[in-house]
Specification:
Blueprint (H helix, E strand, L loop, with lengths): L6 E11 L10 H9 L9 E3 L2 E11 L2 E9 L5 E3 L11 E3 L8 E10 L2 E7 L3 H17 L12 E4 L3 H10 L1 E7 L17 H13 L3 H9 L6 E5 L9 H14 L4 E5 L4 E3 H4 L2 E6 L1 E2 L2 E2 L1 H18 L5
Helix pairs in contact: 3-6
Length: 313
């Protein structure tokens, strides 16, 4: 029998932002509602980098807009485990049915103005963001009455003010940067500003390997990694831990899990500890979760953020 044990998921707070060249700044909830109303579910199936995604459910309730989207790869089979006695049996595969595909992942969103909560369930938040940009671009092309550059928004993570205050108070005595593999690229690298870690990766590559042929070989390699550690010796004159704190926070803000800072009090902090997010248990639905229960939990967390003043940052 399948287990109905609730699944662990994480709700993260993000905020929509457009380039300063788009005055006045629109509200993501508003432009999405305007383009969702005339679009049926069939029209909302759009291509992503590794397959397709579609809005399966959406509703406006109270002040909030709730969205559930799902992703799949056309006609992709899944691996299966044959229940045969003994060892040495290969895995099998099962193709999808005639009128359906296997779920790659899905995700839930709650929007109010430019405030956004996301709960991934196998679908990366960057893919959810890219899907919404594609949907807005389609709406603009169809003449829906939204700003002509509304698809240029980004969803930015907002730091926990309490953690940030602690870092400023204690200072930063060490920064550990995992510059990573030279062949790594971000999903939306072409559409955003280069981060400091990406800049360091590119500059280190061009400095260490002067020949184009060598650089290309390293970029294609999967076994070349680099790390950079910046430390402060408090016993010598120079930069203070308090002065290094803004640099450490900037690196944490724009990176994923490739940066760790150590505060003056010895506390090790990665990006996850800096962000506004909450771990929850959601009612299971096969390999994913029930979107209605997910929305309820997201609504509760939004109220918590409102009451704490975190949304006023």
């Amino acid at each position: 029998m399948p287990r109905n044990t609730p699944k662990n998921r994480t709700i993260s707070y993000l905020r929509a932002q457009w380039p300063e060249s788009i005055p006045p700044q629109p509200a993501l909830q508003d432009v999405l509602e305007r383009c969702l109303s005339p679009v049926d579910y069939g029209d909302s199936a759009l291509s992503l980098r590794d397959g397709h995604a579609q809005i399966r459910h959406w509703q406006r309730a109270g002040l909030n807009l709730y969205i559930h989207m799902a992703a799949w790869t056309d006609r992709e089979p899944v691996s299966t485990v044959p229940h045969l006695q003994g060892s040495g049996h290969d895995l099998s595969e099962a193709p999808p049915g005639q009128d359906w595909d296997y779920l790659d992942g899905d995700g839930m969103m709650l929007l109010r103005g430019n405030h956004c909560l996301v709960m991934p369930s196998g679908l990366h938040p960057k893919s959810m963001e890219q899907y919404l940009r594609n949907l807005l671009a389609l709406a603009i092309a169809k003449g829906v009455a939204i700003p002509p550059e509304a698809d240029r928004f980004r969803l930015l993570a907002i730091g926990d003010s309490k953690v940030i205050e602690d870092v400023h108070a204690q200072g930063v005595k060490s920064i550990d940067l995992n510059i990573g593999q030279f062949n790594e690229t971000a999903l939306d690298r072409e559409e955003r500003h280069e981060t400091l870690v990406e800049h360091l990766r590119r500059e280190l590559l061009s400095t260490l390997f002067s020949k184009e042929e060598d650089r290309r070989k390293v970029q294609e390699a999967e076994n070349v990694q680099a790390r950079l550690v910046v430390t402060i010796n408090s016993r010598k004159r120079g930069l203070t831990a308090e002065e290094l704190a803004p640099v450490g926070l900037q690196l944490l803000d724009e990176s994923e899990d490739d940066v760790e800072i150590v505060t003056g009090g010895g506390q090790r902090i990665k990006r996850g500890a800096l962000l506004l997010r909450k771990a929850v248990k959601v009612s299971a639905f096969a390999k994913t979760v029930h979107h209605n229960h997910a929305w309820e939990l997201m609504d509760e967390y939004f109220q918590e953020l409102e009451e704490s003043g975190a949304l006023d940052l």
